[in-house]
UniProtKB/TrEMBL annotation:
SUPFAM superfamilies: Aldolase
Listed InterPro entries: Aldolase_TIM, DeoC, DeoC/FbaB/LacD_aldolase
Gene Ontology MF term list: deoxyribose-phosphate aldolase activity
Keyword Acyltransferase: no
Catalytic activity: 2-deoxy-D-ribose 5-phosphate = D-glyceraldehyde 3-phosphate + acetaldehyde
Matches recorded under SMART domains: DeoC
Family assignment from sequence similarity: Belongs to the DeoC/FbaB aldolase family. DeoC type 2 subfamily.
Pathway: Carbohydrate degradation; 2-deoxy-D-ribose 1-phosphate degradation; D-glyceraldehyde 3-phosphate and acetaldehyde from 2-deoxy-alpha-D-ribose 1-phosphate: step 2/2
Organism field: Sphaerisporangium aureirubrum
Keywords: Lyase, Schiff base
PANTHER family: DEOXYRIBOSE-PHOSPHATE ALDOLASE (PTHR10889:SF3)
NCBIfam families (UniProt xref): deoC
Protein name, UniProt field: Deoxyribose-phosphate aldolase
Pfam families cross-referenced by the UniProt entry: DeoC (PF01791)
Amino acid sequence: MTTSLTEVASSNATLRAFLHGLPGVDRVGADQRAATLGTRSIKTTAKAKAIDLAISMVDLTTLEGADTPGKVRAMCAKAVRPDPADGTVPSVAAVCVYPDMVPHAVAAVRGSGVAVASVATGFPSGRTSLGVKVEDTALAVASGADEIDMVIDRGAFLAGDYRKVYEEIVAVKAACAREGGTDAHLKVILETGELVTYDNVRRASWLAMIAGADFIKTSTGKVAPAATPPVTLVMLEAVRDFRAQTGRMVGVKPAGGIRTTKDAIKNIVLVNETAGPDWLTPEWFRLGASSLLNDLLMQRQKLTTGHYAGPDYFTLD
């Protein structure tokens, strides 16, 4: 982080001045750019590589009140080996669960290379005290979570209390520290469907990055609209420009509403053409989707064998 960005976080007034001084987003231009990139055609050989890349970027998720250890273990088995009949299919990037399910997920994916992410901080609303958010995060990290997905206080952000949002992200980031081991990565969820404007999406992206986010994420998946292409475009521009100013890379995770292989490939094109190829790895780009994986597997099998699998071939997520 540069000295100038450290200084802008010194008060709400300086944060506000910086964030509102960012270039405005041309809404029509962003919509048109995303729509144009979404029409790019991909040759069959490139499509096969894109499908495998998309599979490797998936965060396979279960975030329901009815989650059980058995459901989590079943999801983890699929994450490690998405198609039991085809060992050439890559594992997904991570599984994402509630904090109390982290120990079950950690045990199920141990040694596989699949990361365990945990939503924390009062997910999905974020309507709880900072103390609870920090404790929630610390519990997940102590249980073995590799990544924490926190949600910002959208009420504070929309009220212009940027300093509160900043301080909460900093505190949760500190709670991601692991004594004697690798710190958990922090993915900051903006819940873009509630931010109203693309300018707010850009401001929230920069605010999260200044506060130390390792990833910025569009949505919880519980609010519509979620990960629209123009919103993802604006966030990709933000991480690109942030690296140009600070030298630090930050990842991007669109989540919610990405259901088909076509959707996934559109996102990969967006990444390549906006942020650049450095972001085309699971380390820097993720796809948050529970129903996407099966469609990717079906399309992969179609390319390999020439026909689609039956509707009951793949397990339901």
